[in-house]
Design brief:
The structure is a single chain. This protein is α+β, with helices and mostly antiparallel strands. It has 2 domains: 88 residues, Alpha-Beta Complex (DNA Primase, Chain A), CATH 3.90.580.10; 254 residues, no CATH class. It is built from 15 helices and 13 strands. The protein has a 5-stranded antiparallel sheet with strand order 1-2-3-4-5. Helix 11 links the parallel strand 12 and strand 13. Helix 1 crosses helix 4 and helix 3 crosses helix 4. The longest helix is centred in the middle third of the chain and has 13 residues. The radius of gyration is 25 Å and the shape is elongated. The termini are far apart. The chain binds zinc ion.
């Protein structure tokens, strides 16, 4: 019989990161850690998370979750008292009846070999490039832009290779800095530029569709998403990188301000999708990075920026601070705010298109020329 206060002491001392870390090497991911899930046949990083803050592990694939004691009972097949004794030994806390208890060596864990990165063929992107009936693209065309902004619409839609699926969804191709097509995100928009969240099948990923259709075996490929717009990184070698949450906003801002050679817009694709891992190509190139959080995401991105801890990373809230109005709503982002201003005929300063960036940059790098040719990219 182990005393309650001993159990409490041990539970207070036990760290889930330490315990899981005894068996697996953990990789940092945002505020959490991850490894392959030991409780199901896991071949993709990302579903098994270890949270130091909550002191629990959770697998979003198989649903296993719990604290340090649960992990040991399940993973090492220990009774509750033995799990407590195991932790007592680890943390140097004496437990009654532990004299005969020895930590059994656990079965050796053989990690699965890493899966190859899913790479989709450029032809797949090309097949989606008829955007004449795309609601989001047509909404972007309908805005009261000034002349310089209007002249940029097609260039921007081409540069980002915006697509349109057969079933009427806008396709945001997810392409990395080397031109590898990782996957595509599909979302349905209404003619007014808002998401159509009510109709069936209004959201999806290209890779999931391909896996479902049996065109690729989902168990054999690793899908790694990048920031939206990452393929333009090496085409604008000296650009400051501006990151917003939504793909639509990245397109809107590129049209609004232009000058992609100096100011490149990328999207995280979600509030929680910002991590050092995602920013890696930008950090390696020592780029200046500006984060433009949604109105309701300012605190979260400020926290995240602290964790990412990169000296050239800044959170920009000036547009929000100066122009946000309650009528824009808590979830408004800078594009929503600027859209209201533009439609209301208030002027927003727009910078001129800066040179033929693609042409300039391609001179430096023939691989980029290939990328441009492959996708029939027009000059930015
Ligand atoms: Zn699992």
């Amino acid at each position: 019989m182990i005393e309650d206060f001993t159990i409490k002491r041990i539970k207070d001392a036990a760290s889930i990161v330490d315990v899981v870390g005894e068996f697996y090497s953990l990789r940092k991911s945002g505020t959490e850690y991850e490894c392959l899930c030991p409780f199901h046949q896991d071949r993709h990083m990302g579903s098994f998370k270890v949270s130091p803050r909550k002191n629990i592990y959770t697998c979003f694939s198989c649903g296993e979750t719990g604290g340090p004691v649960d992990f040991l009972m399940k993973h090492e097949n220990l009774t509750f008292p033995d799990a407590i004794r195991w932790l007592g030994k680890k943390y140097g806390i004496e437990v009654e009846g532990s004299e005969q208890f020895t930590v059994k060596p656990s079965a050796p864990h053989t990690p699965s070999p890493p899966l190859p990165l899913l790479q989709l063929p450029p032809a797949m992107v090309k097949r989606t490039r008829d955007i004449s009936n795309d609601n989001l693209c047509n909404w972007l065309r309908s805005i009261k832009w000034d002349g310089a902004q209007r002249a940029r619409i097609d260039k921007v839609l081409n540069a980002y290779m915006v697509g349109h699926s057969k079933d009427g969804l806008t396709v945001f191709w997810n392409i990395d800095e080397g031109g590898i097509i990782r996957t595509g995100k599909m979302m349905k928009y209404k003619p007014d530029g808002h998401r159509d969240k009510d109709s069936i099948g209004n959201f999806g990923w290209i890779h999931s569709r391909l896996f479902k259709a049996g065109k690729f075996d989902g168990e054999q490929w690793d899908v790694k998403k990048t920031l939206y717009g990452m393929h333009l990184l090496n085409l604008a070698k000296h650009a400051t990188i501006n990151i917003v949450e939504s793909e639509k906003t990245a397109l809107f801002m590129s049209i609004c301000y232009g000058g992609m050679a100096r100011n490149l817009w990328m999207a995280s694709g979600g509030k929680s999708n910002l991590s050092r891992e995602k920013l890696k190509p930008l950090i390696e190139q020592r780029r200046d990075i500006f984060l433009y959080p949604d109105h309701d995401g300012i605190e979260e991105w400020k926290e995240q920026a602290k964790l990412i801890n990169y000296p050239n990373l800044y959170v920009k809230t000036d547009i929000d601070k100066e122009y946000w109005r309650p009528e824009d709503g808590e979830k408004a982002d800078i594009a929503d705010i600027l859209f209201r201003i533009i439609q209301g005929n208030e002027r927003v300063e727009s910078t001129k298109v800066v040179g033929d960036v693609l042409e300039e940059m391609a001179k430096e790098n023939t691989a980029l020329q290939q990328l441009i040719d492959t996708f029939e990219l027009e000059k930015i």
